[in-house]
Design a protein that fits this description.
The protein is built from 17 helices and 16 strands. By secondary structure, it is α/β, with parallel strands linked by helices. The strands form three sheets. Strands 3-4-2-1-7-8-9-10 form an eight-stranded mixed beta sheet, with helices on both faces. The radius of gyration is 22 Å and the shape is globular. The relative contact order is 0.13.
């Protein structure tokens, strides 16, 4: 099979989407399939080939003023047309509902190519990035003002967030995403809980669940035990606002009252780090909260076993690769009752689930795990068991089967005409 990927995010930027694309394309390429990945141009660190069967084509891009990490890929209909004519894909796989996803679905319809879309990210839950206060970067202003105060007044910023929380933005983003995914032949959800959410969102196309998977040969844990007074907590991922890492830090303040020698390590990079560093300083635990920055995935499996409990307060995970990595390494976990997290963090089985944004609930759950050695050992053992159902090769088998069935079912797919045909025709 010849598969054409479209994504608004990819390596060298590291996130869950990029890791999923890398893993599936590399393992499927080993089975003889060929890939061409259309992705944004970043500059330093860009590459145009992963293996002899995986080519990468970069597209010019800008960025959102409110969130520089999000790339806005500029229209290149002529370039897409040439890629399709030269590569002759059997299938187009859309990984993001941004402009690359829009270009992809229009090209797929234009050329009659079977199309799959993976719903990696709940974009409607990220509407904060188009809010006025983020657009004008008032959050940074508040933190600068905070330097001249003895107390950092986060409540004032929260009031602006609530005031600017117009539901219309969420509806607009949801409509845009649905328009793209409802034009795919099949939609892939990384988890069963997210499949239910997509049905509620209004996705009408067939939805198939395929986990992003995990290399359990690398992320391979052994049951852990805990005893002592120096627990090591861990949070890993993109350190962006929607991950709610500030809630984790607030919860850790309460944990620190019970375990003064405890530490919280945060691995990852992102735009929220400066504000989180200020928060840790404000809560007088600068020495207990460590920011390690970005650690390459190739060595990340060596980090997880060094810690005792994984904490997350993210409210928009479609699966949560870092959670899967953590439990695969035997860590009990505490998360929140949002989207796919309860599918990996099973309440009272391998960890606890608190209410969203409930820092007190997260802290109490973590403390309960630490204070009960038998419960800790049970959770650690069960974490490894939960992760075992996401072995990467099984997920690749499923994805390969979906590809084959969609290609076979969509043979002779009728080409459609739309306004974007004009751009393709003009670029001939």
């Amino acid at each position: 099979m010849r598969v054409l990927y479209f994504s608004d995010t990819f390596l060298p930027k590291t996130d869950g989407v990029a890791v999923s694309i890398k893993n599936f394309s590399e393992l499927l390429a080993l089975r003889g399939h060929e890939f061409l990945i259309c992705a944004p141009k970043y500059g330093d660190g860009d590459f145009d080939r992963m293996t002899d069967k995986i080519q990468v084509v970069r597209f010019r891009s800008g960025y959102l003023p409110s969130y520089p990490d999000i790339k806005v890929v500029l229209p290149s209909p002529g370039k897409i047309k040439k890629i399709i004519e030269d590569f002759k894909p059997d299938l187009i796989h859309i990984h993001t509902p941004g402009l690359m996803g829009l270009y992809a679905i229009n090209a797929a319809e234009r050329f009659g190519i079977p199309t799959i879309g993976t719903y990696h990210t709940l974009m409607a839950e990220q509407e904060m990035y188009v809010s006025f206060y983020r657009l004008f970067k008032l959050d940074k202003l508040f933190f600068k003002v905070g330097k001249f105060k003895k107390k950092l007044d986060l409540e004032e910023l929260d009031k602006i967030v609530k005031f600017d929380n117009f539901n219309i933005r969420k509806k607009i983003i949801l409509k845009i995403c649905n328009d793209i995914y409802n034009r795919c032949d099949v939609v892939i959800s990384p988890s069963h809980l997210i499949k239910q959410q997509l049905l509620e969102y209004g996705i009408t196309r067939p939805i198939t669940v395929v986990s992003n998977g995990m290399d359990l040969k690398r992320f391979q844990g052994i049951p852990k035990t805990f005893a002592g007074d120096s627990p090591k907590f861990l949070h890993v991922g993109r350190i962006s606002y929607e991950k709610n890492c500030d809630v984790v830090i607030t919860a850790f303040r309460q944990i620190l009252n019970q375990y003064p020698k405890a530490t919280l390590t945060i691995i990852g990079e992102g735009p929220a780090i400066p504000s989180l560093e200020r928060q840790a300083e404000h809560l007088e635990m600068k020495d207990s909260v460590k920011f390690l920055g970005f650690i390459p995935n190739a060595v990340l499996h060596e980090e997880y076993p060094k810690y005792d409990v994984f904490l997350t307060a993210s409210t928009m995970e479609t699966q949560g690769l870092v959670v899967l990595e953590a439990i695969a390494c035997g860590l009990p976990a505490v998360g929140v009752d949002a989207f796919a997290l309860p599918e990996l963090i099973k309440h009272a089985e391998n960890g606890f689930i608190a209410k969203s944004f409930d820092s007190n609930g997260i802290a109490l759950a973590a403390l309960e795990i630490l204070k009960n050695p038998e419960l800790y050992s049970k959770f650690s053992k069960n974490s490894i068991q939960v992760a075992s159902g996401h072995e990467m090769e099984k997920c690749v088998d499923l994805m390969e089967d979906v590809y084959s069935k969609v290609i076979e079912a969509m043979k002779g797919k009728v080409k459609k005409s739309n306004i974007f045909d004009l751009f393709f025709d003009l670029m001939q």
